[in-house]
Amino acid sequence: MKPVEKSNNTRLIIVSYVLSILTYLIGLYFLAQGYLAAFLGIFPTLFFGIYLIYKNERRYGLLLVIFFFVWILIYYYYLPNKIFNR
Question: In the chain, what is the greatest distance between 2 CA atoms, to the nearest angstrom?
Fold first, then answer.
């Protein structure tokens, strides 16, 4: 078995994931309050994902890009329920 190599960008990866999750949760909270501009909370995830891919951390960056699309689906399915229930 090959030992796992530690990345040179470990701190960048951790910060990217933490900030992505925080902006998603804050965006979801404001979306629940009825602010449609909260949908913009998903774009830092795409930005960090592309940045990590650019920094040669393809595995972690691609995962964030996939999270971006999953979060769009979550917002999309959550949003109509909040609009039509008012």
Answer: 57
User: pLDDT of 51-81, one tens digit each?
Assistant: 989 988 888 899 989 988 988 887 777 665 5
CA pair distance 56, 77, nearest whole angstrom = 33
Q: Flag whether pLDDT at 18 surpasses 90.
A: yes
Q: Report the Cα 55 to chain-centroid distance in Å.
A: 17
DSSP state of 57: -
> b/e string for 34-60 if b means 16 or more Cβ within 10 A?
eeeebbebbebbbebbeebbebebeeb
